[in-house]
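Deliverable D4.2, example record:
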Amino acid sequence: MPLRRSCLQCETKGPHCFCSLDRVALERLDGMGHFMQLGAHEPVLREGYAPEQVYVVCRGTIKLTTSSPDGRLLLLRIVGPGDVLGLAAALKRSRYEATAETLEPTQVKAIPRTQFLLFMEEFQAVSRNSVMAMAREYDSAVLSARRLALSSSASAKLASVLVEWGGLVLAGEHDDHNGRFPNSVRFHMPLTHEELGHMAGISRETVTRVLSSFRKEGLLQMDGNTLHLKDMKQLRHCAE
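Output generated by the structure prediction step:
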C-alpha cells in the first residue's frame, strides 16, 4: 500500500468522515502532524497512556478494545477511513480509554494534541466534525452496552454486531440514502471468530455455531473473508 502524502488528494469523503472539510481547512490539516504506515496487528495507541496525539485514519481498519484487570477483553468497535482516534482523551486531558490495533495494513495521520486543539478553535467545521465523531462513539457504546446487558440470546448478540457493521458499510456506500438502504450488503470481514466473540460477548465456539445457523437460514453467506449479509431486515429482527 503506497504511503499517502497529502490530505488534498484524499478520496475519503462523506457525511461520516472527519475530513469532509473545505479547501482552506484541508490545507491546514495537510500541513499538520505526519503520516504513519502500519502493518497488520500493530498498535496505534494503548489503553492507559497519556494522549499525546490524535490520529485520523486514512486507510485500513482498526479495532478498539478494552480489558479488565484479570485479562478479559471486550472489542468495542471497528473504525476505518475518516474516523478519529484519541479525540475524547485529548479533549478531556485524560488517558486513552481503549487500545487501538490495526487489523490490516493501515495508514493514519498523527497530529500532536495541542496542535489539533488549536485546529478545532480555528475552524468551526473541525469542531462540528469532532462533535459528530464523539457522538458516533457514544452511539456505538450504547449499542455495545445494550447488546451485552439486554440481548436475550447469543444469536441476538451476534446479529446485533452484524447489523451494526452492515449498516456502517451501507452508510458509507450510500451518502444520499435518506434513511433507506438495500436489504443486503457484502463486505470484507477482517475479524476472526474469536474477535467477533469479543465484540458480541460470546465464545468463539458459539460464534461458529450461530454463523452456521444463520447460513443455513439463508441470512448470510461467507466466501473466505468476504461476508454477504443477504437479509438485513431478518437479522435486525433476530437482534431484537
